[in-house]
Design a protein that fits this description.
Elements lengths: L5 E4 L3 H13 L3 E6 L7 H4 L3 E4 L6 H10 L4 E3 L9 H9 L3 E2 L4 H8 L1 H11 L12 H11 L3 E5 L8 E4 L2 H19 L4 E5 L5 E9 L5 E13 L2 E7 L6 H17 L4 E9 L5 E7 L6 H8 L3 H9 L6 H4 L6 E8 L1 E2 L5 E2 L2 E2 L2 E3 L6 E5 L6 E2 L6 E9 L2 H13 L2 E3 L5 H9 L1 H5 L6 H5 L11 H13 L2 E2 L5 E2 L18
Parallel strand pairs: 1-2, 1-4, 2-3, 4-5
Antiparallel strand pairs: 6-7, 6-8, 9-10, 9-12, 10-11, 11-14, 12-13, 14-21, 15-16, 17-20, 18-22, 19-21, 23-24
Length: 491
């Protein structure tokens, strides 16, 4: 095995900090990249060296930085270029190790229709569906499948270019919207249909493969709690998956990975319907946002495994024959307004207190005074908790969220706490329709605007000021020194 000596992390935020943490622990130097809005961000400070770039999505420019800083390898994190075959090719052409799968596997799994065909050939169950077609062709196909149907972009992901439609008129109307969105987001406006699986769970299997012919499954993650087809709460193991079902889904996931010659960390996503019937949904050819819950229950460091596999090492015995202990839950903390359709929010992070303690982990790249803008994904942090059983993990998570202070920007912390308090969640009665069924009328119990809360907290933090007579000043602005609403330092 030959671990990289120096790695360029082609990403930002919490995932860049998380990757850097493992690199440091294994003696690997880290080079960060950043754009102008990220100047001085925590992920920049976590690296031995940082280089400013114009974009996180320019494969050639990122590879040029890696070569110029004498890196051996590139870790793509997730998002941005992590599943872009052109980035893999650029890295290989530059003589760099790409810490991810072969380009051929990425290309197959990056196309929903090619992936479906590959899975069918491998005997992995897929949702009944169609080939890409025109609106007229898909109307005919939908009549055969039966409404409602799921309209999907061939190259889609993250909820983009995806809609459930209930009749031919709606299909024709949504088809135009979906093709435009898919073409703009992915450069491919092709659309196909799948049968709707009624009230499914969203279950994914973490797979790992090396260059020595070994492929393993590291258990499942329950990902059914979603808004706009994007996950907000994940857990492992799933309360809806038995030992026997886990075995069957793991075998199908391994077959899926082997069918495309996969190497590295990947995730096979399934829809789980009635009677333990499951269907292949897609493969994410990268590390997942929710990988911490798998690390909690297996004791494995998935980033370290990525580095070792990329260096040519076989998977260790503890990965090939994993054992699972306890239960873990992860909540994604977003700068958003859940009461207004989860619209992204912006602001300055004026006060921050992260939860800590046994069984609590926070993955973040935040600092007080940091400007939270709208340039990037609104996810601020991930909180994950472990306990001996699911009830204990839920209780620990509720306490952790209660103690998480992020003032100055609106977040979904209240919303997450209320989701965990729904009786159906405690029972494990989870489907992808959970938020629609249980939280559609939700509104925050707090009526205090984020800036007011932040100002009040800052006033309390700095203590009561004194007036000229020695009495306490109740005006919080008086505690902020030479601060004036008109701006400037007025002395």
């Amino acid at each position: 095995m030959s671990l990289p000596r120096r790695v360029l992390i082609a990403n930002r935020g919490e995932i860049a900090v998380r990757i850097a943490r493992t690199c440091h622990a294994t003696g690997i130097e880290v080079v960060a990249v950043y754009t102008e809005p990220d100047t001085g961000s925590p992920h920049v400070l976590a690296a031995q060296r940082a280089v400013q770039v114009d974009s996180y999505t320019d494969p050639e420019a990122l590879c040029e930085v890696a070569v110029a800083t004498e890196c051996d390898a590139i870790h793509p994190g997730y998002g941005f270029l992590s599943e872009n075959p052109a980035f893999v090719r650029a890295a290989k052409a530059a003589g760099l190790v790409f810490i991810g799968p072969p380009v051929a596997a990425m290309e197959v799994m990056g196309s929903k229709t090619r992936a479906r065909a590959a899975m069918q050939a491998a005997g992995v169950p897929v949702v009944p569906g169609t080939e890409p077609g025109t609106a007229a062709e898909l109307v005919v196909a939908a009549d055969e499948l039966g409404y409602p149907v799921f309209l999907k972009a061939v190259a889609g992901g993250g909820g983009k270019g995806m809609s459930i439609v209930g009749d031919a008129e709606e299909l024709e109307r949504v088809y135009r919207q979906a093709t435009d969105e898919a073409a703009k987001s992915f450069g491919d406006g092709s659309i196909f249909l799948e049968r709707v699986v009624a009230r499914p769970r969203h279950i994914e299997i973490q797979v790992f493969a090396d260059t020595h012919g070994n492929t393993t499954a590291l258990g499942e993650r329950e990902c059914s709690i979603q808004r706009r087809h994007q996950k907000i709460i994940e857990e492992a193991p799933s309360p809806g998956v038995s030992t026997e079902l886990r075995q069957r889904m793991s075998e199908a996931a391994i077959a899926a990975a082997e069918a495309v010659g996969y190497v590295g960390a990947g995730t096979i996503e399934f829809l789980l319907g009635d009677n333990d019937e499951f269907f292949f949904l897609e493969m994410n050819t990268r590390l997942q946002v929710e990988h911490p819950v798998t690390e909690w229950i297996t004791g494995l460091d998935l980033v370290r495994l990525q580095l070792e596999v990329a260096g040519g090492a076989p998977l260790p015995a503890e990965a090939l024959q994993p054992s699972f202990t306890g239960h873990a839950i992860e909540c994604r903390v977003y700068a958003e307004d859940p009461g207004a359709g989860h619209l992204p929010q912006a602001g300055r992070l004026m006060l921050m207190r992260e939860p800590s303690g046994p069984g609590v982990r926070v993955d973040a790249a935040l600092a007080e005074g940091q400007e939270i803008g709208v340039h990037f994904d609104p996810m601020l942090a991930k909180v994950s908790c472990w306990a001996r059983d699911r009830g204990g993990a839920i209780a620990r998570m509720r306490e952790a969220l209660k103690g998480y202070v992020l003032l100055g920007v609106q977040t979904n912390l209240d919303h997450l706490q209320d989701v965990l308090a729904v009786p159906a969640f405690a029972k494990g009665d989870l489907t992808t329709a959970f938020l629609d069924e249980h939280m559609s009328q939700w509104h925050s119990a707090s009526e205090i605007p984020p800036l007011v809360a932040a100002a009040t907290a800052l006033a309390d933090r700095y203590g009561a000021a004194r007036n000229n007579s020695g009495g306490a000043v109740t005006d919080p602005w008086s505690t902020l020194g030479n601060f004036r609403l008109g701006g400037g330092d007025q002395r």
